[in-house]
Design goal:
With about 400 residues, the chain is an alpha/beta fold. The protein folds into two domains: about 20-50 and about 300-400, Alpha-Beta Complex (Aspartate Aminotransferase, domain 1), CATH 3.90.1150.10; about 60-295, Aspartate Aminotransferase, domain 2, CATH 3.40.640.10. It contains 15 helices and 13 strands. A seven-stranded mixed sheet has the order 3-9-8-7-6-4-5, with helices on both faces. Helix 6 (about 135-145) links the parallel strand 4 and strand 5. Helix 12 (about 300-320) runs parallel beside helix 14. The longest helix has 21 residues, at about 300-320. The structure holds pyridoxal-5'-phosphate (PLP). Pyridoxal-5'-phosphate (PLP) binds near residues 114 and 210.
Length: about 400
């Protein structure tokens, strides 16, 4: 009956369930490291983005506790009213120092950073040329901005070039990409994108959420580059660089890094920054402690690389449906959502957590298990994962390979 909200919602939920697309949350009773507790049981966790194993590190816990004692738990107001705490300022300075850029701006989440930045920079009459597999927050920011959206097939630079040509009207153009694609783990051709942008006088914005802390010496996809450099190797710094602090840095929030003018402008105009309570100072303190470890402890990245190689070698030997990814994101492509869900449930029963990723997060027909490896795991845990994935024991996988 029109007007009956409850009936309408029940019917929509039933449709989601019938399509094997229903999402359920599991309460984690303890931790988000390699071993977690849920429903009174311990599980090996292969679905966290805590890539360097910092989210439970004592340095971060101490920084958070000390900051909470000094500053309290909340910020009390937005950054432009009275919420801009010295912890936020110190974090922004530490990020800019690490990356070698003018300034950084700390947002409460990566979602807020992307949506707020795109909406602030772009508007009607402008064009955004974007990879089809970009993160939802980039897609939503592009939508909100009111700019024309031209979506090129994943990693297809020839198509991106055509779209940049098509978009050569009066407005500004922005080439927009993830650096590491969050559901596939593959990397964008940043040098190629930068070359295209330069030739077509477009701005560039790159989301390095899954590269920052993990790639290179920790400075992510643009390690070895300094903002303002225009060399072609590995890729010139983008005009707008975004990364999150809730993944490799072990805390929460995100930042935009770039020029003084970019940051000042976002402070004036990024609505998700201006009209939102500042993140709690203790979270910024934990992020700064995470950043310090991420800068110094290169062994974490070495260990992670070792795990990636070990997992891929084992998975290849078993004929698992790997994709071309050298990052900690190692999806197994299965196709149908019910296959992915059944496998994820089966692994869960065996004490291993791997999430099933289904549409709309990924395109129809590409449902998958999204395995993430971290420096917090040990080799035995990687071997245990391979053991439970053994094709011979998993009918769903047998069908998929
Ligand atoms: C590529 C990418 N960008 C942005 C985000 C959003 O970051 P946050 O979780 O801090 O909102 C995510 C996922 O969380 C992501 O994978």
């Amino acid at each position: 009956m029109p007007g009956d909200l409850q009936a309408e919602l029940q019917s929509r939920l039933a449709d989601i369930e019938a399509a094997s697309l229903y999402r359920r949350r599991y309460v984690q009773a303890r931790g988000h490291g390699p071993v977690v507790e849920s429903d009174g049981r311990r599980y090996l966790n292969f679905c966290s983005n805590d890539y360097l194993g910092l989210a439970e590190h004592p340095d971060l816990q101490r920084a958070m506790a000390e900051s909470a004692r000094r500053h309290g738990s909340g910020s009390g107001a937005s950054q432009l009213i009275s919420g801009h705490n010295r912890e936020h300022a110190a974090l922004e300075e530490a990020i800019a120092d690490f990356l070698g850029c003018d300034r950084a701006l700390y947002f409460s989440t990566g979602y807020a950073a992307n949506v707020g930045t795109l909406d602030a920079l772009m508007g009607r009459g402008d064009s955004i040329v974007a990879d089809a597999l970009n993160h939802a927050s980039l897609i939503d920011g592009a939508r909100l901005s009111g700019a024309a959206k031209l979506i090129f097939p994943h990693a297809d630079l020839a198509a991106a070039q055509t779209q940049l040509r098509e978009a050569s009207g009066a407005g500004n153009r922005l080439l927009l990409s993830d650096s590491v694609f969050s559901m596939d783990g593959d990397r964008a051709d940043l040098a190629g994108l930068a070359g295209l942008a330069a030739r077509h006088h477009a701005w560039t914005m790159v989301d390095d959420a899954h590269g920052f802390g993990v790639l290179g010496d920790g400075r992510g996809a643009f390690t070895g580059m300094r903002p303002g450099q225009c060399l072609d190797t590995p890729a010139p710094w983008p005009d707008v660089y975004v990364a999150t602090l809730g993944k490799a840095a072990g805390a929460a929030g995100a930042f935009v890094a770039g020029s003084h003018a970019l940051i000042e402008y976002l402070i004036q105009r990024a609505r998700s920054y201006v009209f939102s309570t500042a993140p709690p100072p203790p979270v910024a303190a934990a992020a700064r402690a995470g950043l310090a470890l991420l800068r110094q402890e290169h062994w974490r990245r070495d260990r992670l690389r070792g795990h990636i190689e070990r997992f891929r070698a084992g998975a290849r030997a078993m004929g698992l449906p790997l994709v071309e990814s050298q990052t900690p994101i190692q999806p197994l492509l299965l196709g149908a959502p019910d296959t992915a869900l059944a496998l994820s449930d089966s692994l869960r029963r065996q004490g291993v957590l791997v999430s099933a990723i289904r549409p709309p997060t990924v395109p129809p027909g590409t449902s998958r298990l999204r395995i993430t490896l971290t420096a917090g795991h040990d080799e035995d845990q990687i071997d245990r994962l391979l053991d439970v994935l053994d094709v011979a024991r998993q009918p769903g996988l047998r069908r998929a390979v």
